[in-house]
Design brief:
The complex is a heterodimer.
Chain A: E1 5-7, E2 10-13, E3 19-24, E4 31-38, E5 42-50, E6 53-56, E7 65-71, E8 74-79, E9 88-95, E10 107-108, E11 112-116
Chain B: E1 3-5, E2 10-14, E3 19-21, E4 24-26, E5 32-38, E6 44-50, E7 56-58, E8 64-68, E9 73-78, E10 87-94, E11 101-102, E12 106-111
Parallel strand pairs in B: 2-12
Antiparallel strand pairs in B: 1-4, 3-9, 5-6, 5-10, 7-8, 8-9, 10-11, 10-12
Classes of the chains: A mainly beta, B mainly beta.
Chain lengths: ~120, ~110
């Protein structure tokens, strides 16, 4: 079985450029999460989708960040314009839950390492 | 408010010795508790979780964890550590909703 797929695995860009990160969740999973991992702040939940609908975006840092899930098999996280402080590893995760139930295991992708110069 | 603490940044053990990675939590209600492991340049891999029932939970790669409600702890254990267990370990807590709150992580080094 394919796990969560993320692309690209590495992204290096210059400040001010637009960055788009992509995620394909595990087939049949109804929940999708975007996380950011930094040394200073650890793992932070950015946004949570359930059945393709954004349920909780309280973790999105600012308006420069946006996320979409146009269908059950694809999601994007966009940063425009990017800044050096956005440098981090961005993870996508999915879980089977269709109702936001607790206790569901989240399965993580390999991450995208973003460097903004 | 919910939080999870991993009091040790690093744990060092010799191969073949028992391994313990500590985790305490602070949540209202009955939490769901998780352990994940992260190898270098990889995503987080699920090890085990506690939902209800037996306080001793067995997971992948020979790991187990014990839920202790009175001490609000969920320590990860392995009776005999391997060099390949060297990684970053995260404890996470979830109330009865989707959110996972992760600890800061504990780096485990198992020396040969």
């Amino acid at each position: 079985d394919a796990g969560v797929i993320q692309s690209p695995r590495h992204e290096v860009t210059e400040m001010g450029q637009e960055v788009t990160l992509r995620c394909k969740p595990i087939s049949g999973h109804n929940s999708l999460f975007w996380y950011r991992q930094t040394m200073m702040r650890g793992l932070e939940l950015l946004i949570y989708f359930n059945n393709n609908v954004p349920i909780d975006d309280s973790g999105m840092p600012e308006d420069r960040f946006s996320a979409k899930m146009p269908n059950a098999s694809f999601s994007t996280l966009k940063i425009q314009p990017s800044e050096p402080r956005d440098s981090a590893v961005y993870f996508c995760a999915s879980s089977p839950s269709s109702g936001g139930a607790g206790g569901d295991t989240q399965y993580f992708g390999p991450g995208t390492r973003l460097t903004v110069l | 408010a919910q939080s999870v603490a991993q009091p040790e940044d690093q744990v060092n053990v010799a191969e073949g010795n028992p391994l313990t990675v500590k985790c305490t939590y602070s949540v209202s209600g009955n939490p769901y508790l998780f352990w994940y492991v992260q190898y270098p340049n990889r995503g987080l891999q699920f090890l085990l979780k506690y939902i209800t029932g037996d306080n001793l939970v067995k997971g992948s790669y020979g790991f187990e964890a014990e839920f202790n409600k009175s001490q609000t702890s969920f320590h990860l254990k392995k009776p005999s550590a391997l060099v390949s267990d060297s990684a970053l370990y995260f404890c996470a807590v979830s109330p009865k909703k989707y959110k996972l709150s992760f600890g800061a992580g504990t780096t485990v080094t198992v020396r040969a």
